[in-house]
Amino acid sequence: MKKIKHTCSSNNKAFGLALQALVVLSKNTSRCPSSDIADYLCSEATLIRRIMAKLAQENILEVREGRDGGYRLKLPPESITFADIYLALQVEDSLGEGMLDSTGDHPWGLQMNDVFSDMVTEMKQSMLDVMKQYTIAELANGLIKRD
Fold first, then answer.
1. pLDDT tens digits for 26-67?
2. Which PROSITE patterns match (predicted)?
3. In a domain? residue 34
4. Could you give the number of structural domains in the chain?
């Protein structure tokens, strides 16, 4: 079976790849190069580096460049929540954005935009509240509850 490499740069896929990359890093005590992470995730190293750069900017990762370089968690995996990753990557909310984009600048559209804005804000907060309950350590250890 041929491995398919994930190359899509959509923020939603980036979130999933970031979670998986952090699990890989949580299992390693030494630095891990982006090429190794990319191979493990069947992805492209350049995509992984872009994702990891955002996580490094938010002090989630430690980065060393050069021949002996790579990535290492800066924080314990027990303290990194899915919400931390979501916020670091500034993942787009396609449903919420789609709802807001569907309104116009006419009176009805403006009224609907106000209603949708409140609803989207509430949905985002609810989603973040759920994401705060899950950590990289739980994902790495397979401890996330499944119904």
1. 998 889 999 999 999 999 999 999 999 999 999 999 998 877
2. HTH_RRF2_2 (PS51197)
3. yes
4. 1
